[in-house]
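go over this record:
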Amino acid sequence: MSNVEQSTVAHNTEQILAEMFAYVINDCKANGDWFAKLFVRTGMASKLEKNHAANDKSGVEIADEIFKKTNQQKYITKAKKADENSSAYWCGRVLAQYQKKSGRKYKDIFTYILLDDLQECFPAYAQMDDQSLFQALDKMYDEAQNRTNLKILREQKELSRAQLADCSGVNIRSIRLYEQRQVDINKAQAKTLYKLSQALGCRIEDILEKNAE
């Protein structure tokens, strides 16, 4: 049984995603991008796409249902009052707004806009007006379709940047700069490339960008 009593109150999609990701990330201590894949895989994302107006379950109840369906009950915990000022809550709300405005499927949105990335942008993006914010999300979406090998390999391992930094010993800022092509990974030190390849279980050649200038 869910740790939140069944409610008859209708919840809009923005509220659902905001509460869901705040609960999953802040209370359950689960990785947001990993959970987003479960959200899509269980079909819950498609259900919410078809019903923007309301739902009879809260974000916490939906998260618990997803955990149960995927045999991840170990993550279910007592829900605290959602922190509406947290980056996780903001991400959920904004992505629900973006889905409605763009018409894109959550399956694609969560493939190209990672919670890990969006949370890093939270302080700056939260200050933007809606038009500027959606333009920034469009840019993030478009650029992600041309992901670096490093980012693809990290996502395949279902690692956040912080997790990759921990298991490789490479600074998280360096990983971000390589993934965003602000620094050419082909010019990285051999020691750095070796550490990343060992953490990702791949060859150094797999990390290098073949078309880099």
